[in-house]
Amino acid sequence: MTECSLETSVPDWVIDHPETLAVFQELGIDCSCGGKSLGFACREQGLSEKHVLTKLHEVINGGFHTANPSSPH
Protein backbone atom coordinates (compact mmCIF):
# COMPACT_ATOMS: atom_id res chain seq x y z
CA MET A 1 0.00 0.00 0.00
CA THR A 2 1.35 3.40 -0.96
CA GLU A 3 1.14 6.70 0.86
CA CYS A 4 -1.67 8.55 -0.91
CA SER A 5 -1.40 12.29 -1.49
CA LEU A 6 -2.50 14.99 -3.93
CA GLU A 7 0.07 13.64 -6.39
CA THR A 8 -1.43 10.11 -6.26
CA SER A 9 -3.73 9.24 -9.14
CA VAL A 10 -7.41 8.90 -8.29
CA PRO A 11 -7.51 5.25 -9.47
CA ASP A 12 -4.56 4.46 -7.16
CA TRP A 13 -6.45 5.98 -4.21
CA VAL A 14 -9.36 3.63 -4.93
CA ILE A 15 -7.08 0.62 -5.43
CA ASP A 16 -5.21 1.25 -2.16
CA HIS A 17 -8.29 2.39 -0.21
CA PRO A 18 -11.52 1.04 -1.77
CA GLU A 19 -13.55 2.75 0.95
CA THR A 20 -12.70 6.12 -0.66
CA LEU A 21 -14.81 5.31 -3.73
CA ALA A 22 -17.94 6.67 -2.03
CA VAL A 23 -16.19 10.00 -1.36
CA PHE A 24 -15.11 10.34 -4.99
CA GLN A 25 -18.64 9.53 -6.16
CA GLU A 26 -20.17 12.01 -3.68
CA LEU A 27 -17.85 14.78 -4.89
CA GLY A 28 -18.30 13.96 -8.57
CA ILE A 29 -14.66 13.01 -9.13
CA ASP A 30 -14.27 10.52 -11.97
CA CYS A 31 -12.41 7.49 -10.61
CA SER A 32 -11.37 6.35 -14.07
CA CYS A 33 -9.93 9.73 -14.95
CA GLY A 34 -7.06 8.38 -17.00
CA GLY A 35 -4.62 8.43 -14.10
CA LYS A 36 -4.96 12.13 -13.26
CA SER A 37 -3.63 13.10 -9.86
CA LEU A 38 -6.03 13.86 -7.04
CA GLY A 39 -4.78 17.45 -6.98
CA PHE A 40 -5.50 17.88 -10.70
CA ALA A 41 -8.97 16.32 -10.33
CA CYS A 42 -9.76 18.70 -7.43
CA ARG A 43 -8.67 21.75 -9.43
CA GLU A 44 -10.63 20.50 -12.45
CA GLN A 45 -13.79 20.20 -10.32
CA GLY A 46 -13.17 23.45 -8.41
CA LEU A 47 -12.88 21.57 -5.10
CA SER A 48 -10.71 22.50 -2.14
CA GLU A 49 -7.78 20.06 -2.05
CA LYS A 50 -7.63 20.32 1.75
CA HIS A 51 -11.36 19.56 2.10
CA VAL A 52 -11.12 16.52 -0.19
CA LEU A 53 -8.04 15.16 1.61
CA THR A 54 -9.78 15.63 4.96
CA LYS A 55 -12.85 13.69 3.78
CA LEU A 56 -10.68 10.91 2.35
CA HIS A 57 -8.60 10.57 5.51
CA GLU A 58 -11.77 10.51 7.63
CA VAL A 59 -13.09 7.57 5.60
CA ILE A 60 -9.73 5.77 5.69
CA ASN A 61 -9.53 6.25 9.46
CA GLY A 62 -12.95 4.72 10.01
CA GLY A 63 -15.03 7.88 9.84
CA PHE A 64 -13.35 9.52 12.79
CA HIS A 65 -12.12 13.08 12.36
CA THR A 66 -8.48 13.26 13.34
CA ALA A 67 -6.91 16.20 15.14
CA ASN A 68 -4.52 16.66 12.23
CA PRO A 69 -6.13 15.56 8.94
CA SER A 70 -2.91 16.16 7.03
CA SER A 71 -1.07 13.55 9.09
CA PRO A 72 -0.36 10.21 7.43
CA HIS A 73 -2.91 7.48 7.92
Describe the structure concisely for a colleague:
47% of the residues lie in helices and 0% in strands. It is mainly alpha-helical and 73 residues long. The longest helix has 12 residues, at 49-60.
List the keywords:
single chain; 73 residues; mainly alpha; 4 helices; globular; disordered C terminus
Describe this structure in words.
There is one protein chain. This protein is mostly helical and 73 residues long. The protein has 4 helices and no strands. The chain has a domain at 10-60. The chain is globular.
Count helical runs: 4
Rg over CA atoms, rounded to whole Å, is 11 Å
| Oligomeric organization of the protein chains | single chain
Q: Span between N and C termini?
A: 11 Å
Order of helices and strands: HHHH
How many DSSP E strands? 0
Q: How helical, in percent, are the residues?
A: 40-55%
* Mean pLDDT figure: 84
* Residue runs with pLDDT of under 50 for 5 or more positions: 64-73
Biggest pleated sheet: none
Strand content: under 5%
What secondary-structure arrangement, pairings included, does this model have?
Elements: H1 10-16, H2 21-27, H3 38-45, H4 49-60
